[in-house]
Specification:
- The protein has 42 helices and no strands.
Length: 844
């Protein structure tokens, strides 16, 4: 230790000793003056080397001593002015980051009850913020090399963001207004603006600076929900500064680029909502959408397709941002195709909220307004295909608002992509929403100046040319009445005619169903007649169950055909008919078909949908085999009542049926009243006892279960269960759990339970919540299916490990459903233990 270091340490040690023990006012002031000399700004400052050493090594330690000894007795020795000059100045001078951390740590470690020390530290922290020390703190970090001390950075980020929370927890009703979130974060935003101004000045002076810490700070503020308060201060300044200054533009680009991906979405969403227009957004983001995958996803997918609560200005800013630069215009084309694909998706039209469909429609129209004529010509065919796919599903919808949306978008798109050709024309009521949608085809004046005159061409409903009569009848025949010129509908005598009752009419089938199983296979493979395929699928299940001997000869071939069969003709109930036929084949020839399905599940060149179909068929077949068969040995009925509840319908046109139903109804009421008032001393059995039947699933359970576990950890060319195919893995685990439930009371249940617990043990900490839920369902199925005494005797080690794992899940799993399932399994284990232990205690 050199002499200078020894001198600093000795002076500091002497000052601490004086402040700790002395009650002499002059000694206390002299000690504080001595320490203040190390901060500079006094008449007799110490040498620069000693000041640097004090700031780097001893400053934080001395402030911690002061914060720990702030009590009323010690401070009463000093007047108010002396406290500000000698005590408060120590916190308001020197390294700002160290002073800030010491003050906040002192507040956090203080007791929850109000105290003098707590109030004094909060007052100093208030002065710290009001005197602009937060600006100095951020500027000090920006001057250091990028990521020079990640630990300090993370600590500062956490402390800066959590100031309102910590002060509210400690001060409660005595909290100061400056620490309220609505006041603190705008103040923090002003500090960020001034620091960026300092960085701009430094860059102009050819000095190195880093905005990485500011980027991380901005990202963390936005992800915690305070982005609006900060960006409302920051964005106007940046939008103005970047208009004509290239250095400011580079600062903004680097500011956003350095935000970590996990925080980037909040910043981009906030910027898109706050900027005054797409020009400002382009200046702030640059080509970030082309460089960063996260930004690309947020701008092209999340803000346009997944979130629909934003204002229309968000759509203008986002789509205008794509159109502002030639390098980003391909994104505009791709976004328009994605929007039209979603707009024309029949499932999305049926199940998505109307508000989301309005939002997507607005985005489509704004995108059309930004397209140039040469871009329209290049992608015309693709756009026409996408529009025609979506028109019909909108017109078939029973919600008037959705139909009107489809008409407006179809008209505008057809007019824009083919202005000189035949265009769609519909009749609909014009309301405020319609006017707003049509107005989106005209770009705002600020954006129109940025694009060519051809790009700003718009289409109004009043100028849309009508299409030919034949074309108009097809899309709009269902939505507008046919009118004949020169006739008056009110005088039409046909209105007085009574219509025929066609409720009992049945559609005539053009094709006759095959009579043999082999003919069914041939029809499904070679036929291009939709009626024949529908007739074949309709009778296929009953034919399979009636001709078991013939089916067993071609069962594998039939299962293969059904697995690969596609709904090319949109047959009603196609998936249900195909699935029931596959279940029937599996039940009739259980071993061969089950071996085929479990082997093909891990084979290549199958889609995820086909693999899920295989699992569904195995589960339904196991369910049917596990149910008791009828005593007569007949097959399980296959009519509609097997899968749907029986509902008695009363036909209003049949008086006898209606009278009979009414008669049965009042008789039933009278019988119930008599029964309720009749006192009986004994009753016989109300229903016959069920006849014990052997389980058909007992002998074949292993064929369903064990092959599915065998190859789960072998990645194939088309899927990887332990890789990215989380949903398929979750369905596989869930299927195994269901098969375990169906194996209850079978001889192989114990072995299945052991294997299943070993299987899920390797997956117990899987990252996907659905997989973890399926694993917890497996535990429940084992506990419920394996006999209790076997659980505690043969599987005691597995249960002990599972218990500790479940206990950990109830405390640490991030998913609420997983925690609930884990707790249920623990309760189930405890109930099993209580049930077995008393029974095992026999008297001596």
């Amino acid at each position: 230790m050199d002499s200078n270091t020894s001198n600093v340490w000795l002076v500091l040690k002497l000052a601490i000793k004086t402040l700790s023990s002395s009650r002499d006012r002059s000694e206390v002031i002299d000690a504080l003056k001595t320490i203040k000399r190390f901060l500079g700004g006094t008449e007799n400052p110490v040498p620069v080397k000693e000041r640097e050493e004090f700031a780097e090594t001893h400053f934080s330690r001395f402030l911690q001593f002061l914060a720990a000894n702030l009590n009323r007795d010690w401070l009463e020795l000093l007047t108010t002015d002396e406290q500000k000059e000698f005590l408060d100045a120590l916190f308001l001078q020197g390294p700002a980051d160290q002073a800030f951390l010491v003050l906040l740590d002192a507040i956090i470690s203080a007791s929850h009850s109000p105290s003098f020390s707590l109030m004094k530290c909060s007052c100093i922290l208030e002065m710290f913020l009001r005197h602009g020390r937060m600006i100095e703190l951020l500027w000090e970090v920006c001057q250091k090399p990028a990521k020079s001390d990640l630990l300090l950075w993370d600590m500062l980020l956490t402390k800066i963001i959590s100031v309102p929370d910590h002060l509210a927890n400690k001060l409660k009703q005595d909290n100061k207004a400056i620490f309220y979130p609505q006041n603190y974060f705008p103040l923090l935003g002003e500090a960020v603006v001034k620091v960026l101004q300092k960085i701009w000045e430094a860059l102009r002076g050819e000095k190195d600076c880093s905005v990485t810490f500011i980027s991380r700070l901005l990202g963390k503020i936005c992800i915690q929900g305070h982005g609006e308060a900060v960006l409302s201060v920051l964005v106007p300044h940046l939008a103005t500064s970047t208009q004509s200054d290239f250095i400011w533009q580079r600062i903004c680009w680097r500011l956003v680029e350095n935000i970590p991906d996990r925080w980037l979405e909040g910043v981009i969403s906030g910027l898109v909502q706050m900027v005054p227009g797409p020009e400002a957004l382009s200046q702030l983001l640059g080509n970030l959408a082309s460089k960063n995958k996260k930004a690309h996803f947020v701008l092209t997918q999340k803000l346009l397709l997944l979130q629909y609560k934003h204002k229309t200005s968000v759509l203008h800013n986002t789509l205008g941002y794509f159109a502002m630069d030639h390098s980003r215009r391909p994104l505009l084309i791709q976004v328009l195709k994605d929007l039209l694909g979603t707009w024309g998706n029949s499932s999305a039209v049926k199940h998505s909220p109307v508000e989301q469909q309005v939002y997507v429609s607005k985005a489509i129209l704004i995108s059309l307004a930004h397209l140039k004529d040469e871009e329209v010509k290049e992608h015309r065919q693709a756009l026409i295909t996408l529009v025609m796919e979506g028109v019909q599903c909108h017109l078939d919808n029973n919600i008037p608002r959705i139909r009107r949306l489809g008409m407006i978008v179809a008209e505008c798109v057809s007019s824009r992509i083919d202005p000189g050709g035949k265009q769609l024309k519909f009749q609909y009521e014009e309301d405020e929403e319609t006017k707003e949608l049509l107005s989106l085809l005209t770009l705002p004046s600020s954006q129109s100046e940025k694009v060519s005159s051809q790009d700003s061409r718009t289409v109004h409903t009043s100028t849309l040319p009508e299409i030919d009569k034949k074309e108009d009848e097809q899309p709009s025949a269902k939505h507008q009445p046919l009118k004949t010129e020169g006739s008056d509908s009110e005088l039409d005598s046909d209105d007085d005619l009574t219509p025929y009752d066609m409720s009992g009419d049945k559609e005539l089938k053009k094709s006759k169903a095959p009579a043999y199983v082999i003919d069914c296979i041939e029809a499904l493979v070679t036929s291009e007649d939709p009626d024949k395929i529908e007739a074949t699928l309709t009778i296929l299940e009953s034919m399979i169950r009636k001709n078991t001997a013939a089916v067993k000869e071609v069962s594998i071939e039939l299962a293969k055909v059904l697995i690969h069969l596609e709904d090319k003709f949109s047959i009603d109930g196609f998936l249900r008919l195909r699935q029931r036929a596959m279940v029937a084949v599996t039940v009739v020839d259980t071993i061969d078909v089950t071996q085929y399905l479990t082997t093909e599940f891990y084979a290549v060149n199958y889609s995820v949908r086909q693999r899920l179909d295989m699992l569904d068929v195995l589960v339904l077949a196991a369910q049917e085999l596990s149910q008791p068969a009828s005593p007569t040995g007949l097959q399980t009925p296959t009519d509609e009542s097997r899968t749907q509840p029986c509902i008695q319908l009363i036909c209003s046109t049949n008086t006898d049926s209606y009278t009979s139903s009414k008669t049965q109804h009042w008789r039933k009421v009278i019988e119930q009243r008599i029964e309720s008032k009749t006192r009986r001393f004994s009753k016989g059995p109300l229903r016959p006892q069920p006849v014990a039947m052997p389980s058909r699933f007992n002998s074949v359970a292993g064929y369903f279960f064990f092959p599915l576990i065998r190859n789960y950890d072998r990645p194939q060319a088309t899927f990887d269960l332990l890789g990215n195919d989380h949903f398929l893995l979750g369905r596989l685990v869930h299927t195994l759990a269901v098969l375990m439930m169906f194996a209850i009371n079978t001889t192989i249940a114990i072995q299945m339970g052991k294997v299943l617990l070993d299987f899920i043990w390797a997956l117990r900490y899987h990252s996907d919540r659905y997989v973890r839920q399926s694993i917890l369902f497996c535990v429940s199925s084992v506990l419920l299916s394996v006999p209790s005494d076997c659980l505690l005797v043969d599987m005691s080690d597995e249960l002990i490990e599972a218990r500790s794992w479940l206990t950990e899940l109830t405390e640490k799993d991030p998913d609420e459903d997983c925690r609930s399932l884990a707790l249920q399994n623990l309760v189930l284990m405890e109930n099993i233990r209580k049930k077995i232990e008393p029974a095992s205690l026999t008297p001596l």
